[in-house]
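Customer escalation, tier 2.

The customer says the design service returned an amino acid string that "doesn't look like it belongs to this structure." They asked us to rerun it and document both sides in this ticket. The original structure tokens are below, unchanged.
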């Protein structure tokens, strides 16, 4: 808290608060500046002291985060919370409005990633703002603020990526030398079944019914379970993989990876295998935008192209809850 004279402007400036929550105002006289500073200090004593860090701590411990969201979703939210909490963490929730959030959005859209040397993608900024929106819902529920300022903030536009895996791409991906068996079995099933990459990576042996040729996903992105019937060729690939000699019967996962530190089994590291395969193929072999999630999009697109299937049947196969999510 301070009142000081600005010689160049011929004004008295009153300043209140810390660096993150600082308020300043200029006046013609020292008396006016001191009066404003005193009124603001008295008003600040009645403000809710909750910061965004406080709300984040409450969110990490909430049932919504710990039980209602999958492990990969929780990890993703933790990652996208880092820049948000670095910027807003110590700021009072009641002193944050849509103008402050919009300034953050513009700042992030101009930020160059030290890893890629390019400006941060709009979708990354959207996910960061989505995390802030989660915290804002908690603030409204606790009556710290009365409105959701996120509704007034312009979100970065998503780049519409229409990516297809052509038959030529598929041949390049699955044929050739030095293709590890885990890669072939996992990604061929991913391509054929149309499930999410994390769902197949976390699939456990106990959820495979060899008699009925079914795999059961007990937990999906939308928290609902789903059962998928495998076509015979894909079922034979799965049987072959499960019966391979080097398989450890103590491993719970169908496609395991091993943690380096303690040699414990963890869900399949599909990102690592995919990065290795892309390096083997070379930069110009396939569309660089193709990712493990593209296999799911391609399968759903091919289901739509099958005249024997209607939209309701495709929703059952893909696990979408709504037609809008499926069409998107």
């Amino acid at each position: 808290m301070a009142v000081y004279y600005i010689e160049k402007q011929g004004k008295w400036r009153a300043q209140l608060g810390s660096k993150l929550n600082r308020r300043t105002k200029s006046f013609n006289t020292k008396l006016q500046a001191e009066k404003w500073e005193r009124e603001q200090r008295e008003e600040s004593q009645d403000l809710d002291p909750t910061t965004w860090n406080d709300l984040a701590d409450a969110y990490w411990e909430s049932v919504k985060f710990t039980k209602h969201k999958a492990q990969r979703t929780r990890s993703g939210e933790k990652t996208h919370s880092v820049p948000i909490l670095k910027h807003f963490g110590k700021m009072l929730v009641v002193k944050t409005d849509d103008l402050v959030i919009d300034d953050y959005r513009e700042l992030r859209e101009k930020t160059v990633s030290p890893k890629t040397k390019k400006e941060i993608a709009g979708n990354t900024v959207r996910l960061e703002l989505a995390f802030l929106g989660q915290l804002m819902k908690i603030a409204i529920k606790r009556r710290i603020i009365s409105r959701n300022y996120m509704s007034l903030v312009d979100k970065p536009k998503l780049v519409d990526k229409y990516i297809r895996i052509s038959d030529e791409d598929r041949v390049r991906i699955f044929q050739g030398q030095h293709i590890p068996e885990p890669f072939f079995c996992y990604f061929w099933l991913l391509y054929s079944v149309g499930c999410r990459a994390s769902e197949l990576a976390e699939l456990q042996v106990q959820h495979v019914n060899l008699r009925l040729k079914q795999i059961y996903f007990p937990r999906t992105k939308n928290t609902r379970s789903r059962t998928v019937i495998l076509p015979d060729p894909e079922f034979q690939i799965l049987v072959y993989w499960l019966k391979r000699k080097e398989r450890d019967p103590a491993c719970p996962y169908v496609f395991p990876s091993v943690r380096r530190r303690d040699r414990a089994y963890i869900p399949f590291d599909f990102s690592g295998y995919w990065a290795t395969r892309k390096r083997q193929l070379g930069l110009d072999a396939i569309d660089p935008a193709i990712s493990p999630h593209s296999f799911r999009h391609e399968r759903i697109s091919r289901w739509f192209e099958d005249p024997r299937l209607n939209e309701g049947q495709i929703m059952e196969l893909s696990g979408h809850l709504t037609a809008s999510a499926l069409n998107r």
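Tier 2 assessment: The sequence is consistent with the input. Residues 195 and 296 are 6 Å apart (CA to CA). The first strand starts at residue 2 and ends at 6. Sent an explanation to the customer and offered a walkthrough call.
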